[in-house]
Amino acid sequence: MKKMLGNEKGLALIWAYLVAVFLLTLLTGFYSLTTWDSKHLAIDTQKTQAFYLAEAAIDRKLNEVRQGNTNALQVNDFFSLGSYHADYSVVPSALDDTYYMITATGTAGGQTEKVLVSMRKILRSLPPGVKGASTIRSKATIAGKLTIDGRLWSADGLTCLTCLANGKPGVAGIANKWSLGTPTINSTAATKIGGYSIAPATNPSPLVFNTTATTDMDNDTLRHVLGLADANPIDLNSYKTTIDNSEGPLALTLDAADSDHIYYFEPSDSEAINITLNNQSGILIVSKSDFNAKAVVSGNFTGLIIADKLTLGLNTKVVGAAVIMKNITNGASSASVLGGSTNANLTSILYSEEALLALPEIPNAAYMQSRFKICGWEHPAPTSTGTLVPFVNQMGTTGTTQQNPD
Predict the structure, then answer these.
(1) Does 13 share its domain with 158?
(2) Does residue 220 sit in the same domain as residue 143?
(3) What is the DSSP letter of 368?
(4) Is 177 exposed, middle or buried (0-12, 13-18, 19+ CB in 10 A)?
(5) Using one digit for the tens of pLDDT, what is the confidence trace for 19-74?
(6) Fewest C-beta in 10 Å: which of 32, 162, 228, 318?
(7) What phi and psi, each to the nearest 5 degrees, are found at residue 249?
(8) Long-range contacts: 78-81, Cβ < 8 Å, 24+?
(9) How confident is the model at residue 204 (pLDDT cuts 50, 70, 90)?
(10) Higher pLDDT, 338 or 393
(11) Averaged over 95-109, what is the pLDDT?
(12) pLDDT tens readout for residues 158-203
């Protein structure tokens, strides 16, 4: 009996030992599994952080490229989350367009992720308020020895591009909201209007007028002409110079060395501001909130003139376009000034897309100096060059890389 009890105690000890080993193995496995999960969770977290760092690099570099900065971007400590790097490159294309690439990497902990973006450069557009050689917001009054030509002209105003073989037509000579009344044109003073492919004439064809694309003129303001949102006036007001002309007409002469500038004058009164030009280029604005500012311009100007009331002096030549919030006249309309000449070409507005596409940039304006459209995005392995490069070489024909409209 004592021998059997001893055997039972030994068997219980063995079972206790086996249970302890099993529990220890189970706990060890659970600990290992937990440690493995924690380690891989940390890696996944770092990979996610690295990916978003790479995305941040894309966003920042894209903004820099739009501002003209194509240098490499390197940020070593981004809010203690990690670092990122981005490079900009030009991708040759078999198509007419050239494509551009931003390659970005983000690093968090020991993990690195890569993002590729391909872009196509969009040529700057025309200011949305320009609808003809002369866009007139109110009833048009045209008088004097003056030529308004909506055919396409070179930026120097010397070559009629529409007149060349296979030259494309231009725009309307005058864009006017027809419901405000037909334009009053003093043809006896040799006022000539032309547009599209029609040469200027003293008795202009109705075809040189645009009466359909100006139905939105009720909402036109100075800011809308340039495509600026009303919510942020700082971007335009920063160029403004307020002028006190309450005691009578005021004379200004723009510096001959100044060019490709934005000149914005806001007079305090409705008295005229006489501006003498010296072959300047850019954007010239003379406007008040009540649209009652009067600009008398003499000399040559290349670009865009925006004025509430515009008078062009003798031998004044505007190459680009004019937007008038009220009306336009030619100050050289009297025969005594012109010496009896009937040559309307002495004073002219010649429409030029070349000049308008070279306007100085106002931040946030609808026309932009350089705008990029994103047309491909890829998230390849960190060591891979990705498949985006061959994709952009065939952009528009084949390819499966993700698309993004802007």
Answers:
(1) no
(2) yes
(3) -
(4) buried
(5) 777 777 777 766 666 666 667 777 888 889 999 999 999 989 988 887 678 899 99
(6) 32
(7) -55, 145
(8) 78/53, 81/49, 81/53, 81/108
(9) confident
(10) 393
(11) 81
(12) 999 999 988 889 998 888 765 445 556 655 557 788 999 999 988 8
Tell me if 368 is assigned to some domain. Answer: no
The answer, yes or no, to whether residue 405 has pLDDT greater than 70, is: no
The two tokens of residue 30 are: 């659970």
What's the token pair of residue 399?
Answer: 């390819």
Which long-range CB contacts under 8 A does 266-269 form with residues at least 24 apart? 266/240, 266/241, 266/242, 266/293, 267/242, 267/243, 267/293, 267/294, 268/242, 268/243, 268/244, 269/244, 269/245
Residue 215, SS3 per DSSP: coil
Quick check: is 242 in a domain? yes
Residue 212's pLDDT is 63
- Half-sphere exposure in the Cβ direction for 384 (13 Å, CA): 12
Q: Is the same domain home to 252 and 155?
A: yes
DSSP output for 64-100: HHHTT--S-EEES-STTS-EEEEEEEEE--SSSS-EE
pLDDT of residue 125: 76
On the 0-12 / 13-18 / 19+ scale of CB atoms within 10 A, 6 is: exposed
Q: How many CB atoms lie within 10 A of CB 68?
A: 9
Tokens 């309309």 belong to 333
39 and 178 share one domain:
no
| Number of domains composing the chain | 2
Q: Compute CA 348 distance to the chain's CA centroid, rounded to the nearest angstrom.
A: 29
Q: Distance (Å, rounded) from C-alpha 389 to C-alpha 248?
A: 64
| Contact criterion met (CB below 8 Å) for 258 and 281 | no
Work out the mean pLDDT of the chain and round it to a whole number: 75
Nearest to 285 by CA among 261, 268, 269: 261
Closest of 295, 301, 403 to residue 348, by C-alpha: 301
| Top-confidence residue, 176 or 241 | 241
**pLDDT value of position 260:** 79
Please check the confidence at residue 403 and state whether its pLDDT lies above 60.
no
Half-sphere exposure in the Cβ direction for 335 (13 Å, CA): 4
Spatial neighbors of 239 by CB under 8 A, at least 6 apart, are: 262, 263, 264, 285, 362
Give the whole-angstrom CA distance, residue 304 versus residue 247: 28
Pairing of strands 280-286, 300-312: parallel
State the pLDDT at residue 64.
83
Within 8 A by CB and 6+ apart from 282, the residues are 259, 260, 261, 262, 263, 303, 304, 359, 360
Domain that holds residue 223: 132-356
